[in-house]
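Dear Dr. H.,

I hope your travels went smoothly. While you were away I took the liberty of generating a structure for the chain from your last submission, since the lab meeting agenda had it listed for discussion. I wanted you to have the full record in hand beforehand rather than looking at slides cold. The sequence, exactly as received, is reproduced here:
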Amino acid sequence: MHWDIDPALYYIKGEIRYYFKSKMPNLTQLIFDLTTSLQVNSIRRRNVDLAYTHTPDQLLTIELGKSLNIDEIDSLVIS
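The corresponding predicted structure, in token form, is as follows:
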């Protein structure tokens, strides 16, 4: 994680690298519960922008751009 935080302005900016292992065959998307008060600017996997949606019910759905097998390890960067 890398963060720039200013509590006086109620401001946070940064990125997180998220590592994960598929626990199901043909995993094509990840879904996170993420407050809509945090704005997502980009999501990248292996330096490629990924498609995503961030809905009012606080679900961040990320399309991985490929299908992962069981126990396949990967990562993405959320900014």
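Two observations you may find useful: Strands lie at 2-6, 11-21, 27-33, 43-45, 48-49, 52-54, 59-68, 73-78. DSSP finds no helices and eight strands in the chain.

With kind regards,
E. W.
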